[in-house]
């Protein structure tokens, strides 16, 4: 099981959401092609004060706002070719049931108590902050994230988070890769070492949330703190705490893919809640960085919030997916700009991979009767490029195990460059008359190299890699990683479809 964070349903999808969805989709596709039975889930975070306030401002009910946003995210998933197997909306009945079960278990474990909360709350972050974390500007106070905080004073149920500091530290120590990449882990460990305070987990001053069990209401009605609600979506997706059933086997999740601003919730609160509820912890929290438009944070006031669906239409879905996953070292912040995207499309995709495919496949169409060429005696150069191509999958797999898609792609494209050098150096076109058998062998080796590269490219660029495999006549059942090996190499003489370009150059509007 692999998940994305569940976006707040109070606003339309932006490029950060698109990035997270694409990366998670690539991880899910990778595992699927590697023979795993994968559950890929996403969802919508539809409760909380932020949601309620946005709905009021827009003159909508929270339900209507949630439906509108959920439809936008569903369209984003389609447009990015990154559909999940399930979408957990926190307003669903199955989710409410799961959250209530979490609550009952935490209560039964003696971890909930009634008290009074008096402190600072950021509605934008849906998070509580200590006085000493805040900064003051113009008489107003702000959270470390830059969002305004307000004073909250109300009766509240508390979760004994303080009791879990030692247990969490022991878990991080026993599972060094629980939080990855490492520098996020170090931040979390340092934070927990300073000690944890108990967490307010219910609210009485608004009502757009899941009500706590009736027996726990006081003179006021309490709704669950939105993060208890939201984090539980991951378990809801599996039915592990409720109906059981056939998806329960996916819990614990293998990876929660999230952005760096919500690591505390996923690496501290969530495992503590699960420990309290006596449920197994997710195996990894995989943290990605933030995307900036030429170094600037996206914001409505700067006017640089980009609709990911527009980007996919402008550059191409696979092109956008490739850019995100190749350009940004996973875990670090990254920049995107028109120039950077166009450069990746034209240099890596059109010039390197596209040209290699187009040149070799059109030579095959013309000179080998449109069939996989014959392979005669191999030279050292042939054997060398084939050996490098044969190594790509294992190297890319190791990178993907580390959640480093940029390394996986760098490895694949290193061999694309090697194959271009091989092709240019061997000059098959010059051997057409003088040594046709040699020409055939070079073309065979190039085509087989392309097959070896296209297979691990599928999770990143599903359509284009699929098209390349179509051109090589690789059948639908022969595209998983188990079929990447030599035993499934291209069959000499197999007919090939007429080649068509797979990676067009990006032309600026004025040149079109
Ligand atoms: O945090 N670049 O929702 P959200 C990259 N509902 N990633 C970004 C980003 C950016 N500029 N901006 C946001 C929430 N993200 C909660 C999650 S999970 C139980 C509840 C990432 O809509 C962000 O880090 O604000 C998060 O992983 C995801 O987008 C949803 O953010």
Helix content: 40-55%
Query: What is the typical, i.e. mean, pLDDT?
Result: 96
Q: Strand content of the residues, in percent?
A: 5-15%
How many domains is the backbone divided into? Answer: 3
Number of strands: 16
Cα Rg: 26 Å
Termini Cα gap = 44 Å
Structural class: alpha/beta
Kindly report the oligomeric state of this protein: single chain
Largest sheet data: 6 strands, parallel
- Broad shape: elongated
What does this structure look like?
Residues 1-360 form the Methionyl/Leucyl tRNA synthetase domain. Belongs to the class-I aminoacyl-tRNA synthetase family. MetG type 2B subfamily. The protein contains 16 helices and 16 strands. With 512 residues, it is α/β, with parallel strands linked by helices. It folds into three domains: 2-101 and 227-310, HUPs (Rossmann fold), CATH 3.40.50; 112-222, Methionyl-trna Synthetase, domain 2; 338-495, Orthogonal Bundle (Isoleucyl-tRNA Synthetase, Domain 1), CATH 1.10.730.10. Helix 12 crosses helix 14 (405-426). Bound molecules: ligand ME8. The site of ligand ME8 has 19 residues, from helix 1, helix 7 and strand 13. Ligand ME8 is lined by residues 5-8, 16-17, 19-20, 45, 230-231, 233, 258-259, 261-262, 290-291, 298.
Write the layout of secondary structure elements.
Blueprint: E1 2-4, H1 15-33, E2 40-44, H2 49-58, H3 62-79, E3 86-89, H4 93-108, E4 112-122, E5 127-129, E6 135-137, E7 140-142, E8 150-159, H5 165-174, E9 179-180, H6 182-193, E10 199-200, E11 202-203, E12 223-224, H7 226-231, H8 233-236, E13 255-259, H9 263-277, E14 284-288, E15 291-293, H10 308-315, H11 317-327, E16 334-336, H12 338-367, H13 380-401, H14 405-426, H15 436-457, H16 462-471
Parallel strand pairs: 1-2, 1-13, 2-3, 9-14, 13-14, 15-16
Antiparallel strand pairs: 4-5, 4-8, 6-7, 8-10, 11-12
Helix pairs in contact: 2-3, 4-9, 5-6, 10-11, 11-12, 12-14, 12-15, 13-14, 13-15, 14-15, 15-16
Bound molecules: ligand ME8.
